[in-house]
Specification:
The protein is built from six helices and 16 strands. The strands form four sheets. Strands 1-2-3-4-5-6-7 form a seven-stranded mixed sheet. Strands 11-12-13-16 form a four-stranded antiparallel sheet, covered by helices on one side. A three-stranded mixed sheet has the order 8-9-10, with no helix packed on it. Strand 3, helix 1 and strand 4 form a beta-alpha-beta unit.
């Protein structure tokens, strides 16, 4: 199960918790640097002032070290949440490809070079953190870093899905830069069609899926919750507070649908090839866990029960999947 939520320094902090026994992995997405670094002089609007790349890099270091002091290690940061959109009413910052390139370099240098009395940080740097249509901008950033011998500074390109551009854009980027990871960092998916979308993210080289947002208060407008304080594309959340101030919550159906992935696809699993099936019959995505078990997530979006067969290493099984159903098949390979 993935969760993403606002924290006071105007970054986003996300984690993957497969179960209470599993290690938590956090990544953070900046929504706005401090106002004094920006051309707008405000958390809302503007861009980074020219020449402030090193100050922003130091800000990221201070953020990471402050959270590590609270036993919250930050595995990765995205340089800017949705850097191609300037929100009119909540914190944001627009960045050009040149700015993302230069900030990436400055952050890497702050983490790894000219350290003096500072320690090295192994936090990964992810760029883009926006919709599929910006894959060409990410390609440009990676290409220009490669020309400077600095492609290693970016570990991954992160994507959201708030447009009509096909998910295959991630594959197009992967084919050009196979050594750079693809991460899917934001979108809410509901119902069986949403589970098919998650299958598609993994089939197009994403190493993750992050649900926006995992939990909110009982009164959606109780606080300034930015884009998710209303019922709509981003709400309701997986978990909802039962009563004001209550430590208890109730869950929406997607909590269980997402568990078809999170419960059976273990940390470190690798996606393996399988016939993807079809949306009018049954669609599939397959993973091999490091314990030798194979997990195949199957989705039936149709209105009727569908029969299907699975074949692996000479073994074959027939099964049925009821209408509007998601199931996971697991076996020892």
């Amino acid at each position: 199960m993935m969760k993403r939520f606002l924290i006071p320094c105007l970054c986003m902090l996300s984690f993957l918790a497969v179960s209470t026994a599993q290690e938590l992995k956090f990544f953070a997405s900046c929504w706005s640097p401090p106002a004094w670094m920006k051309t707008s002089g405000n958390l809302i609007g503007g861009t980074l002032k020219p020449g402030y790349e090193k100050q922003l890099a130091l800000y990221f270091r201070n953020f990471i070290e402050a959270y590590e002091a609270l036993n919250i290690p930050i595995q990765a940061i995205t340089l800017q949440n949705e850097p191609n959109f300037l929100p009119p009413a909540y914190p944001g910052m627009k960045l050009s490809a040149e700015q993302e390139r230069d900030i990436s370099t400055a952050v890497y240098e702050e983490f790894h070079e000219n350290l003096g009395d500072k320690r090295e940080l192994n936090t990964e740097i992810w760029i883009n953190d926006h919709n599929f249509e910006f894959w060409e901008k990410a390609d440009r950033v990676l290409h220009e870093l490669a020309q400077k011998g600095q492609k290693h500074v970016v570990k991954a390109v992160a994507f959201h899905n708030y447009s009509n551009v096909p998910v295959t854009a991630m594959t197009r980027l992967h084919e050009l830069h196979p050594e750079t990871d693809i991460q899917f960092t934001e979108h809410s998916e509901w119902g069986v069609s949403g589970m098919h979308n998650i299958q598609s993210y993994f089939m197009n080289w994403s190493r993750s899926y992050v649900y926006w947002v995992a939990m909110t208060t009982q009164k959606l407008d109780e606080h300034n919750q930015s884009p998710y304080n209303r019922i709509g594309e981003l709400s309701p959340t997986l978990l909802v507070e039962k009563e004001d101030g209550s430590p208890d919550w109730y869950v929406t159906p997607e909590y269980y649908l997402l568990a078809q992935f999170a419960k059976f696809v273990r940390p470190g699993a690798r996606r393996i090839y399988c016939d993807p099936g079809s949306i009018d019959q049954v669609s599939f995505v397959a993973f091999r866990n490091f314990d030798g078990y194979v997990a195949v997530v199957a989705v039936n979006q149709s209105n009727t029960t569908r029969e299907f067969g699975l074949s692996c290493r000479g073994k074959f099984v027939n099964s049925k999947l009821p209408a509007k159903t998601v199931a996971t098949l697991v076996w020892q390979d």
